Amino acid sequence: MTRTLRERHAGAMGRLRDDEDVWVATADAEGVPCLVPLSFWWDGEELWLATRRTNPTGRNLEASGRVRLSLGHTRDLVLVDGTARVVEFARPAGRRRRRLRGEGRLGSPR
Q1: Which string of b and e fits 48-69 if b means at least 16 CB within 10 Å?
Q2: pTM (whole model) above 0.85
Q3: How many Å separate Cα 66 from the centre of its chain?
């Protein structure tokens, strides 16, 4: 069944709001791809990911900033192409910290 643009947009926004994990695709300077699953948080404007600067994903993001994210199931996929930026912080505060730890989600430990 074909969905309207409005229905597809609503579905994508639902995935951003409700999903917890995303596939993160990056590549190094030689074009060698790296694909890993990471937890994410959507704050309504930006997607937040956490990874170490020293692993391949962190190195690739810091070097080029180019990223492709994939949310959802293979038959209902949301692809997001974007530019990542490194944000340094020792410990996220308040709501962001709770979301990154998985608190405040239906069925999560409290």
Answers
A1: ebebeeeebbbbbbeeeeebeb
A2: no
A3: 13
User: CA–CA separation, 41 vs 7, rounded Å?
Assistant: 22
Q: Which of 31, 40, 105 is nearest to 69 (CA)?
A: 40
Cα torsion 31, 19, 105, 46: sign: positive
Give the whole-angstrom CA distance, residue 99 versus residue 20: 9
Give the chain's radius of gyration (CA, Å). 15
pLDDT band at residue 74 using 50, 70 and 90 as cut-offs: confident
